[in-house]
Amino acid sequence: MDCMFCKIIQNKIPAKRVYEDDSILAFEDVSPQAPVHILIIPKKHIPTSLEIEESDNELIGRMVQVANRIATDREVAGRGFRIVMNCNREAGQTVFHLHLHLLAGRAMHWPPG
Ligand code: AMP
Ligand code: ZN
Description:
- By secondary structure, the chain is an alpha+beta fold.
- The chain has two helices and five strands.
- The protein has helices at residues 4-9, 57-73; strands at 17-20, 24-28, 36-42, 81-84, 100-104.
- The chain has a five-stranded antiparallel β-sheet, covered by helices on one side.
- The chain starts with a helix and ends in a 9-residue tail after the last strand.
- The model has no long low-confidence stretch (mean pLDDT 98).
- The site of zinc ion has 5 residues, from helix 1.
């Protein structure tokens, strides 16, 4: 499968890994939009949030917990952080392997652009 994030999981493309377990990988975004910009992905290839199945619910919950843990470790949890999941093109999704963006370290705007 020609999926960039699957290739990162398989170590075929390098990434700055910050967390890994059996089912989740987190790594630095190559084009950071904030001082902290980390992507949290499932090792299972799920193209978009629309393909999340009931059996994935625990996995998705653990992805959020990983984001919380990284935010805490980076000492931005108290200041605030944003978790973003883009779905399909108008939302800005460019990589069709599910991912959470963890963004922090600066004031975020609302509404998002
Ligand atoms: P999205 O636009 O929500 O699909 O987010 C995809 C994100 O993946 C963007 O923020 C990109 O900067 C990031 N990205 C793309 N390729 C890589 C890569 N090889 N390593 C790390 N981040 C990447
Ligand atoms: Zn994939």
